[in-house]
Fold these 4 entries.
Entry 1:
Amino acid sequence: MKRLVVLGGGESGVGTAILGKKKGYTVFVSDFGKIKDNYKEVLIQNDIPWEEEQHTESLILNADVVMKSPGIPDKAPIVKKLIAKEIPVISEIEFTAPFTNAMTIGITGSNGKTTTTMLVYHLLQSAGLNVGLGGNIGKSFAWQVAENDFDIYVLELSSFQLDGIINYKPHIAILTNISPDHLDRYEYKYENYIASKFRITRNQTESDYLIYDSDDEATTEWLTTNKTKATLIPFSLTQDFEQGAFIKNNNMEVRINHEEFIMETEYIALEGKHNMKNAMAATSVAKIMQIRNATIRESLSNFQGVEHRLEKVLKIQNVQYINDSKATNVNATFFALDSMNVPTVWIVGGVDKGNDYNELMSLVREKVKAIICLGVDNKKIIDVFGNVVDIMIEVTNMNDAVKMAQRLTEKGDAVLLSPACASFDLFENYEDRGQQFKQAVHNL
């Protein structure tokens, strides 16, 4: 029997362990941190041996294959030892793909991937297709392949998941955009991060599709100097195409395989320029899949959006509170500030991933009346914007941030939580940060 070792006992790790056992591997799960109780129970029920708060080398370095959870960096000592022994270290996606005949649609990008993934899933589900949702979102891909029988999987793929790919290819790939993010995992080299995103298309053939933002500099530059065999489907706010998606005269037009879809942008539920791009990307998938225009139109007009992504929480005394906790990088916050059309109190800060805040300068000058820094170390934010806004305040918890924001607003203003940073200094994750924001707003 082949030995599968799973590093990381979270959603992707436990899912992979279940699939591995079902397919006849001997399985061992090892987590350097603590494993959550609900995952422990699943491992115990399935008779899968596990350890936590350690990596026992004698039980790991004898593996035939290792599935590494996306959160574990390549420079972790145990990973270096595995690579030195030439034991394959792959991602959950790579491990799982050979065990299913389902078509997969893979979606990656620095921003917009969750919204686009959810919208693609919504479009396909509304069309009555037998479709699963996985990857970086919801139930792990491996777990679903072990327990369900979907014809299609819509997968949100992070660069970390793509790093562990050898043979996997999606039939349809979407690359929403590329902006500097997670550079701490890529030796602070932007080109390494860009290359990582493009792994999504490395194994694609002529019968596959790559949908991409042709307004995005890093993307178009890569495509001029590198080759993919996939059929290219561009989308843009400024250009139009024989084959692709674009905005013209307040209409979204999508032309694919000699078929056309047109819809007035005002009837699309998602708001903001970046969401028009997400809608174009998702509609391109629907057209490739030959979904009826009427179904696409209805799905685009009733889509609810994603929690923690420009989510309108409440209006109190005519001040709109907006939760954009999912904005963990500068580019995401750029979109958020760009979509604000009233004076805004901006709550920002957290764990900086090598951010360049200067990109936000013109938007902050134009739209932001006060900044509330919510982080352990706010020096960089204060240095950049200290002379740009009149009011800058530092707080260390969400309740103080929201109460302070309320004091600084007048009727007609907005309060925007869009941190541009990771959340791990004060919160468990961006969801926890967003939930605390919503709770604090409801407590006002």
Entry 2:
Amino acid sequence: MSFAGNKTFVIDPERAAESNAVVFLTVICVFWSLAFVTASVRVYTRAVVVRSFGRDDVFMVFSVLCGIGGLVSWIIECKHGYGRHMDTLSPSDFLTLLEAQFFQSVIEASFAFGFLKISIALSLLRLSRGNWYTRILWTLIAFICFYTLFSFITFLTYCQPIAGLWNPALRPKCYSRFIYRNFGLFNAACNIVTDISFATLPIPLIWSLQLQRRQRLYLIAILSGGYCAVGCGIARAMFIIAYVHEKDGTFFPWAPFFGALQLDIGIIAACAPTLRPLLGRALRLPNSLDPHRGANYYRAGKALDRLPVSGNLPHGYQRQNTASGQFVELAKGGKQWAPAHPDDSPGGSATAIHAEHVRMKAEVGGEKSNCEVDAILPPRVEDPGSKGVVKTTEVKVEK
């Protein structure tokens, strides 16, 4: 005996034995394992290696936790109906399948995708160096919040009461399949739009960085992995369209299948760029996505080597931090008078120092910007610790 909808009838035993559950569950588990490992390594890299665990990583953790809930739902669904013909399911299996589908829709299709997209947007904000770029990303974050909450509300209001979705005895009032299909299409379309946006937005920014071509191509290739998620989203949307006419949707559950793949591939593509501190040495890549680091830094020691030393002072120079508020601007090729030590009174002795390559122009993304460095001052004569050259390591270019 079998249950399909409200009908009970005898079925062919061979048909009842047919199942795709193992295939679907295996593929889902493989991709989810890759996504989980990639996300775990990302957390380790950000929290331990580079110690820059931020908001984007927090939202990625939320997305992964929701993804775990989605995986548990898939296991339950495959055990109670996915991969088998709908007309071969027992009443208890069919109702359990409907309940698992509901929780998967809420946890995975709504919140997991929402947290993932917000995480990607916050990661791209780390690269943002322009107001227009920042505004676009915050607009996308607001849009993601809107359609995520909208999807969540549509799932909650699909049937009243909610439990009536998997318990017909409650005699629920539910949307028609066409309205439910349209809500699903809207959610899929929003995910496709945001996937395309996040895969495309970083390309012009990365290409403008003063990095080696190999490094730029690597970053673009990794971030463009989001286009694979776009492909899964399009396939998911096509099967959602066919949802209302599907008579055996449990045997080939393509729509939720491609939805799960879209989430897993999205997590992998979002986490891959953050693994560069671990993989950079093997690939000969810098360890930071910050466009200032590596592209717009210079070694202050090279400038120090060209600064002449007054004959009545010990050889060497002392670094004065700009945070002290006593920054002395040293123009390229010019001369400035500066106190021999920051603590000296205005009437104290002063020494003329010639600045070479201390204040310079640098190109950041094709635009000119000032390079502000710490003032290089001669050490105090009476300071016994002033021996040799005190050399700064890197000086940041501020736009």
Entry 3:
Amino acid sequence: MHALLLKRAYEPATESDGARVLVDRLWPRGLSKEKAKIDYWAKDVAPSHELRRWFGHEAARWEEFRERYHEELKGPGAQEEIELLRAMARKGRLTLLYAARDEEKNNAAVLRDYLREARRRA
């Protein structure tokens, strides 16, 4: 598997991004599709609306958010998308795009770690 990178969807696309995949359930507010230059929108690996609202990007809820999100990622819809992302990552660099302001505590970071752990188990 090639590099798995994280980037805010609002940052300009670069050649070094490789395949650009949006991993949020909602489209980033105010971002045009042309400017986003997204290759694929992986809605089914994004946290559920309920989990996203519960988390609310509150740092005190981060660890529990990670645990709950890991459980959601084990679901059948998410697993199909995860396999697709893994296939994309085998072909080249993959950049997971997210809209959150927090660059460390966001769903894309959890997903990246989940994909890396799955790679180690395989």
Entry 4:
Amino acid sequence: MDRSRENIASLRAQEAAPMEGVRFGARTANNSDRRALRDIGNLAGAPQNPNAVRKRGLSDENATDDKKQCVFLADRPITRRFAATLANQSRTDDHLQFSIATSSSTYQNFILRDVEETKEEEVNIEIEEIEMEDLEEEEEEVPEIDSCDSSNPLAVVDYVQDIYNFYRRTEDLGCVCPNYMSNQFDINEKMRAILIDWLIEVHYKFELMEETLFLTVNVIDRFLALQTVVRKKLQLVGVTAMLLACKYEEVSVPVVDDLVLICDRAYTRGEVLEMERLMVNTLQFNMSVPTPYVFMRRFLKAAQSDKKVELLSFFLIELSLVEYQMLKFRPSHLAAAAIYTAQSTLSGFKHWSKACKMHTMYSEEQLLECSKAMVEFHQRAGQGSLTGVHRKYTAFKYGCAAKHEPALFLLDIRPANC
């Protein structure tokens, strides 16, 4: 009996003896309620388990931040041989390393997740780069067109933009109803076109300023919109309007007798002066209206145009002065469309810069209808009986601008309002 008790005590002592090199819990292998090996709390990110194998020298007190490592143990049981192998490796390494023991499925999931995160980061970086490029394009500064005139007191750089803002607000006051001819009983659109084409030749012969021509046409239209005129007095209205424009714009004004002579003495001096009084009273002495010319100068500067673009632009807009149908466009619209059409004609493709759009306040789409009409005028400028503008701009003095081929490719573009 005593011997059997000694054997039982010996067996119990052997079962209670701990395994060498590995610390396990108090539960035995034969205990039915022992946790599965795969769930011993040693997965990555789980709380540290006292039963997990730890490399020698790694402790919360002594280990530095650079040398602290994690031990990834998953799906593999910790045998005595495996624990001894890990312990031997930790002795020979100079630096702590990651020891990852995982099944093939867990490893593949880890790699796939890492690849997906990398791709996601690359996509986010590309999106950020595209957004930065768009932001840089939006923040691209428009060239300062007045900096070159900062030392010129006549350019009034400090408030030139205020001047043109005022022009834009008041340009409608100088416009007329585009169908005012319906109120005239003895004249029509064709007679108006003949008169203005003739006045362009008179203006060229007298070598008057460009501003004078645009104001002359404006005065004629505003007067005819308010006053009915018989056919035989229409030429008198034209020369008198030019006399008023000369007094407003020119330094040296043509004398009345010169205007009577240019009309082949169809009217007397007294008739010219009488018509002058009638016109200024009808217009209430309002001669200060923004014409297409004032916008042309500003917009040409914004377009950084050369002499060719300038001459071709004026050729196109003078063709438009003759046409009654162009009264539906505002002066600023005509000026912008003339420059856009001239640039497109010379370059062979549509051209409208960001600076032009900003200073004219017209987009390319808004100019297409007016530009298309100008191309048609250019195409038939040398044909028919009204060729005064074409003859003027075929001269060397005006750079033979009328000889440029019209931009027919613009005719295929539908107007924006269609």
